[in-house]
Amino acid sequence: MAEESQKKVVFDREAAKQVVFDGEAASSLVKELRVSFSSGKTRSYEWRISQVKALLKMMAEQEDQIVDALRSDLAKPPLETVVYEIGMFKNSCELVLKELKQWMTPEKAKTSITTFPSSAEIIPEPLGVVLVISAWNYPFLLSLDPVVGAIAAGNAVVLKPSEIAPASSSLLAKLLGEYLDNSSIRVVEGAVDETTALLQQKWDKIFYTGNGKVGRIVMAAAAKHLTPVVLELGGKSPTVVDSNVNLEVAARRIISGKWGCNNGQACISPDYLITTKEFAPKLVEALKTELENCFGKSPIESKDLSRIVNSNHFARLIKFLDDDKVSDKIVYGGEKDESKLRIAPTILLDVPQDSLIMSEEIFGPLLPIVTVNKLEESFDLINAGTKPLAAYLFTNDNKFKEQFVKNVSAGGLLINDTVLHLVVHTLPFGGVGDSGMGAYHGKFSFDAFTHRKAVLYRGFTGDSSIRYPPYTDTKQKMMKALVAGDVPGVVRALIGWS
């Protein structure tokens, strides 16, 4: 029995070695997927559509499991999961099924007299084998939305979900393994070691969603292979509030975008508010009233608020509140329960710019309010920092709307609401500057994983000697006119006029 037990231990150790995902395993995976891609199977319209339909089927059949996984990882309310994770992704799939044929169709391009006679077209072709590294806060949507774009474009894909949401990561690996074509679509679970092993490989594109610190690591790794990247990062998304608005509606919409989206743990959540000193007290009171309407008198116990994802993020948020520069600025909330990883919606008023909470993206349920004398001062205040992923404005002043759109640079702007620009598939979603590069959603997801290949067609008729040596003054004049598209100049050169 002892010998059998010893053999079992050895066998278990060997099995454990086999599942270690290192550089060698990553290299082998990429080679395997390149063979699959080279076979041409992922390029066909039929294959792409079949995989998108399989994803739709998966979301419909496994909704309860997805809700449970997100409840385990984040205590995310089922409504948020069903609407923002499952519902939005289903919409993405439905759009692909409706529009893919058109997206794949070569686009005719005009030609000029320079290449006459000729015709031209732009052919959308898949990049090859791509890597998607996802985030933990919306682990299904932020994993599968880029993946469906890569599939629609005809690529082989590796998805690396975030280990910070372990239940969701495990479920993604299980479900994609069951529903999709594993010869071309794979999931790799793990943490830093596994991500590092993946980043050591040569990919045809890397799509990363997360924070700027890791984004720089991804970009540096990609640069070694000249691999293009899409970086969906974040930043301190400002919300400017004018005094001429419907305050009740504005407060509700701010609450929906801040605390109604994963309790502030979203890249496009309002990070801080800007309003005038005179109007700030009214805004605070409106937010207090509507927060109580939404989450009750003890919001820290509300089942409609997600918890903080883990103890590290909890400690990071508490550090913001413990800063001496803001400890006396809390005008609402501040309750916390470390054992349950819960922090109540918290509002801070007149927060100084040099405080810790204003130094980095909050990514949690804390909302500082910065006051100015005139609302026009908000432009300089916003532009003094790095460019955010989103910027919001609440106003009924059309001139001020125009000034805001003109003067504020951000990944996306939204007037008189928050976060809803995310659901408009005809708008690109992406950052600028420190908040990221590249964009996706709708056709932009297809474009993100597609190379637009230029093709020019010519026959053997109409060949002219003017492009060939020996060169003469007449040839030079004609070539100069042809390159410039100057038809009269070509005629003058032909008849010998200068």
How is this structure best summarized?
The chain has 498 residues and is α/β, with parallel strands linked by helices.
Structure characteristics:
single chain, 498 residues, alpha/beta, seven-stranded mixed beta sheet, six-stranded mixed beta sheet, 17 helices, 44% helix, globular, disordered N terminus
Explain what you see.
By secondary structure, this protein is α/β, with parallel strands linked by helices. It is built from 17 helices and 20 strands. The strands form five sheets. The protein has a seven-stranded mixed beta sheet, with helices on both faces. Strands 5-4-3-6-7-18 form a six-stranded mixed beta sheet, sandwiched between helices. A three-stranded antiparallel beta sheet has the order 1-2-20. Strand 8, helix 10 (247-258) and strand 9 form a beta-alpha-beta unit. Helix 10 (247-258) packs across helix 11 and helix 16 (473-483) runs antiparallel to helix 17 (487-494). The longest helix is centred in the first third of the chain and has 27 residues, at 78-104. The protein starts with a helix and ends with a helix. The model is unreliable at 1-17 (pLDDT under 50).
